[in-house]
Design brief:
By secondary structure, this protein is of the alpha+beta class. 25% of the residues lie in helices and 20% in strands.
Amino acid sequence: MLHSVKNYRDTKALSEIRKLIQDSSIALSHAEILSMLNGLCDRVTVYRILERLVKENIIHKIINVDGVLKFASCNQCKQEHEHNHIHFSCEKCKMVVCLNDISPVFQMPTSYVIKQMNFTVAGLCPACA
């Protein structure tokens, strides 16, 4: 069952983390978020808040090509919550960004049931190319 943010106490840490992610044009890692909070809360609190925001479909997880977990705001989700878009991971600057205008197309054998997808394409971003 999904819970709305309204059902929980809105702490300063929750508000700041949500704002950091929503205002960022790139996906952020736990370490980046913790650093940007300047000591507002500890790393465990950041983990708990990130997991809560994922469960509430406010943000989504992206694993970059180096295996680092990043978080991005859910901006263009359809009625049914999904993230079937490409994520681009820059090999040089390590930036990860959602490419919402590109929808991957593929065909799976009929006996497979897809529950979750994670599409990450690696290369050089425009700034690094």
